[in-house]
Amino acid sequence: PSSSIAVFxxxxxxxxxxxxxxxxxxxxxxxxxxxxxxxxxxRELGATHVFHASAPMPVxxxxxxxxxxHPAALRRAVDCLAPLGVCCLVGSARNGxxxxxxxxxxxxxxxxxxxxxxxxxxxxxxxxxxEHWGAGRLPVERLITFYELREINRxxxxxADGRVVKPVLxxxxx
Length: 174
Description:
Elements: E1 4-8, H1 12-24, E2 28-33, H2 36-45, E3 49-52, E4 61-66, H3 71-79, E5 81-89, H4 103-107, E6 111-114, H5 122-134, E7 144-148, H6 152-160, E8 166-170
Parallel strand pairs: 1-2, 1-4, 2-3, 4-5, 5-6, 7-8
């Protein structure tokens, strides 16, 4: 509660992080992305500030999440940390993708770490997620756009262009 966080990448994982930060009571929730429509959705889901990925971050934050899977996003997620801040890498990148960091950034007590499935015990975590969803605090359905199977090419194109967050194909719908 009352801490600040920046989320780099407003896809499904990044927007889930925005919603979780709101639920946790973060006072400052920053979303950073390349797509204005995703930034608008991030604002609706709880972001207090939104920035295009090309814009500078004006304030340091206590924590950051890299959810874009891009080396430049990771660099910015570390660079925006206040001293003793923690950056969690959750973005998916292919093997062989490397990122450059300024070593002095870590010398001020900042931490960079990876995360697997939220590092949460599923037996406790999933019931809490369903409780938040049932109470309307975790509206994951806002991230989904449905497509009929015959629209698979459009679904792929819309996802690649950032027009949709999470395309879901419907197979055999009447």
